[in-house]
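ARCHIVE CARD
Drawer: 12
Card no.: 0347
Subject: one protein chain, sequence and derived structure
Cross-reference: see card 0346
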Amino acid sequence: MRKKTEPHTVFTREQLDVYFASYVGMEGGNPDAAVWFCDSSPQPNGASLLAPLVPRRQPGAWDAAYRRKYRHHMERWQSHQRIARIMAAARAQVFNTAIGEQDWKHYFDHDLYAPQGAEFKLSLFPLPARLSNQTPWSKAFRGQPELLPRQRYLDLCRKGQRFAFIDAIRRLWKPKVVICLGERHLGDFVQAFVLAQARASDQVLQPADQPKTLRVLERDGTTWLICPPLAGAAGLMSDVLLDAMGRYITRWLTPDDFPGALERCRGADREGVMSDDACGPQIPFA
């Protein structure tokens, strides 16, 4: 999706501030979910800046229509696939079942960011940091003085209504755990979620792989995990680390936090056998 502005349309600072103070630039999913994922910026397939600017007052989701529209693109969305792997591992751990090698793929194809699903995805900033056609920021937003230089745009989000909106929806929905992707954005995560006075500690995620340090912050019934990004040599790249992250977050989760899987399991329970792949393969109940 090409990122551009309408010809001859110059947006004011006030228009941009109101537009950014919404769910624009967020993948969405279920805001009432226990698990939130927060990136610094959306993927290049994120929101365009087109007139008229209409704030998104309700979160989007990967519903059936969305999946049909983007089915030919989704196989290239590696960061989202890695989030699906984390969530598939968490679900398997919560239900005490083995995870198959393709379980993440099923989760990605059917469950990730679903309207009534187990997670919600948001971004600190509403516009992609990298544009899909590799157009430089200065060229893409030429003629938009409130977005140039890019630092002016970042400051608008930080000091304007965008970060305040993020704090407001967190206080409204109260997720159990927020996984913040990219420790180099720690300052922005702290500012957006108002974590300056939060209880803080460091935990080491060390499966049979390179150890990764997680910054753990707790406030107001929510725990934030500031972790490496899902890309790059120092990121959470390996399947071992992704599965370990999934298992780690289950200390805050219960079966109720996977509503679709729980209902399927309860249905199988009434039949006396667990048959759904979310609940494990054909295991008789004791």
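Annotation on reverse: Residues 1-6, 273-278, 280-286 have pLDDT under 50 and may be disordered. DSSP finds ten helices and nine strands in the chain.
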